[in-house]
Amino acid sequence: MKMETDVNRFRRIVRGRIKENLKRFISSGELIGRQGNKQVTIPLPRIDLPRFQFGGNQQKGVGQGDGDPGDPLNQGKPQPGEGEAGQNAGDHGLEVDVSLEELADILGEELQLPRIEDKGKKNVKSKKYKYHGVLKTGPEGLRNFKRTYKEALKRQIASDEYTPERPSVIPIKEDKRYRSFKIEENPEASAVIVYMMDVSGSMGDEQKEIVRLTAFWLDTWLKRNYDNIETRFIIHDAVAREVDEQTFYHTKESGGTLISSAYKLCEKIIKEDYPLDEWNIYLFHFSDGDNWSGNDTNECMVLLDNVLLPASNLFSYGQVESRYGSGQFLKDLEKHFGDSQEKVVTHQIKDRDGIMNALKVFLGKGK
What we know:
By secondary structure, the protein is an alpha/beta fold. The chain folds into three domains: 1-46 and 94-112, no CATH class; 125-185, no CATH class; 188-363, Rossmann fold. It is 37% helix and 21% strand. It has eleven helices and ten strands. Strand 8, helix 9 and strand 9 (314-320) form a beta-alpha-beta unit. Helix 8 packs parallel to helix 9.
């Protein structure tokens, strides 16, 4: 029990440290490179549980005896860079493994994100085994060792077979207890995320890195809310095409911009692969706000009004800043929709430090 208490205390300390440094993790991309199978390695400063340490009294120091005005407080303490080379290990940072689910919970707590209300999936049921009681019979693989030990201990104490000086608790058949379970069928919630990114000449590497970091945290949160997540990627300049994740994040910039090309391809993907009554559909578009013409912007609004918004849970537009982008498309979206359309969420991401606010805006409605 003492060890379990210390472990839980340590986990609480780690959780607090992650919260303190969450903004740095979000903007630096450290966690993406440390991602494994449903876990992330978190680099943290050294964590020590507080304790008193008493030393000898061989020499006087601060708090020991009388001092004279002007005496340095750190007298006798080696300064950085002084002294000879040694063979002892120095202080190192700590790395801990945290599940993506726990990381999503921390993100949700820090940003105060609501749980998402999904459409569910009507025609697919997922089976879950829920343990809810204890039986006297069952397979050995379900034996509850703690309950079995308690039953054996109670039996031996009641029959005066237990000797505290030489404790030996050996369960017999009547002592054994087994976990019981029942099968629950629940609608399987599924979601698809379609990421669209402008890769025209004005979108540089830093702008795409901001998109990459934002997408990682969006995935982390949405995977916590859904049993099944699919991700599709669209890049566009004057022409749109679907690509894999590697290409999405590493395509070199070039060409002009026709935003409607991405929206048309997104419409095609949804109609072909994702029935609206079965899938929760999230659309995220990232651009620097340049578009070729007002006519194409008008076509984008028609596609959003008639096709993409009726099909989706949420359409989020994140506008990253570049030296060459006009930023006009964000203004056009806000003018067209105003506050009348709850499914449309827009946000300007000025730099990496703005990613955390973007996540709060995009996910804060719980759609």
